[in-house]
Amino acid sequence: MFLWQKNFAVFAAFALLLPVMRLILNGKRANLGVHPLKRLLDVLREDCALTGTKEGCGEGECGACTVLVDGAPVNSCLVPAAQVAGTRVTTIEGLSGRHPLQRAFVEHGGAQCGICTPGMIMAAIALGPRPTLQDMRVGLAGNLCRCTGYSAIYRSIAAAAKSKNRRERKARRAKNSRSSNKQERRKRRIARNTS
């Protein structure tokens, strides 16, 4: 018989003593009963089954474990769970495979072995919609990649920004076209009513 089986009541009571931590995880409310000093990385991977966030070094040096906390990139291997109580945490799974950066990383060779890719994408999201090359270099300085060199990663980010800008322009044109069509119809209606 295992120790936990002999002392089940003690283990059950201990589990009830863990504080419930509330946060928004990938856009959904989450209540987690975890030890406050457990690393956010371990909470995400073990307790939430979100294994897209990778552990590279465990010391905050490689950036493979980067997630967004209230929109800011953090190394989840350095953050105690208690620090994210009441915040909005976004992992690579929160992007649902539909973010332009994810597509661009695949199309432009920014992703190779996959260890650094989730952290790179999350850090790149924090750069904003139109990062310059210098912004990319500074913003990704804490993310290490041994496979691609960084030019493919920078190309991927630039391509995603370009495609996003194209989609925004197209949406604006469509909206303007719809509003001008409405104005035309209104003018015709007024002309018919006055004649």
Architecture overview:
Helix content is 46%, strand content 12%. Strand 1 and strand 2 (28-33) form a beta hairpin. 29% of the residues are buried. It has seven helices and five strands; from the N terminus they run H-H-E-E-H-E-E-E-H-H-H-H. The protein has 195 residues and is an alpha+beta fold. Helix 4 (100-107) crosses helix 7 (151-194). A five-stranded mixed sheet has the order 2-1-5-3-4, covered by helices on one side. It has two domains: 19-95, Beta-grasp domain (Ubiquitin-like (UB roll)), CATH 3.10.20.30; 97-195, Orthogonal Bundle (DNA polymerase, domain 1), CATH 1.10.150.120. It starts with a helix and ends with a helix. The protein is flat and about 90 Å long. The chain has helices at 3-6, 8-17, 40-47, 100-107, 117-125, 133-139, 151-194, and strands at residues 20-25, 28-33, 66-69, 72-75, 88-90.
